[in-house]
Specification:
Mean pLDDT: 80
Largest sheet: none
Structural class: mainly alpha
Shape: globular
Low-confidence stretches: 17-29
Strand content: under 5%
Radius of gyration: 13 Å
Distance between the termini: 34 Å
Oligomer: single chain
Number of strands: 0
Order of helices and strands: HHHHHH
Length: 120
């Protein structure tokens, strides 16, 4: 995948984030925009453009985990990510649980795709 293609997909991903702000912001203390900004550096890993999550990806996931206080927060962030991930193109949802492991974070993330039930 070319750098231009990756940048184009990231731009599309971030533009959908802007559309989701109003909906997600009311649902969770951490806005959808903040959640998407924090995990945006993980796109290259999810698109398999890089073999490991970047330091920025790890830092963003760590920050995001600090905002998750209860089930309502987890559900809202999951829904936000689910909608944003739908816009980046074809990715392997099984890579999502690998991010915390690769970043050495004590956090469990489920594979998130359009079939994911975020209430669980």
């Amino acid at each position: 995948m070319t750098t231009a293609s990756t940048i184009h997909r990231l731009a599309g991903f971030l533009s959908i984030v802007i559309l989701l702000i109003a909906r997600c912001e009311a649902m969770v203390s951490t806005s959808c925009l903040t959640a998407m900004e924090e995990v945006a550096p993980c796109v290259n890993f999810l698109l398999q453009s890089s073999k490991e999550p970047s330091g920025e990806c790890c830092s963003g996931v760590k920050k995001l985990s600090g905002h998750i206080g209860n089930q309502k927060d987890r559900t809202a962030i999951c829904e936000c990510l689910k909608q944003g991930l739908a816009e980046i193109g074809t990715y392997d949802p099984e890579l999502i649980p690998q991010i915390p492991k690769a970043c050495r974070l004590s956090l469990t993330l489920p594979p998130i795709d359009q079939k994911t039930d975020c209430s669980k």
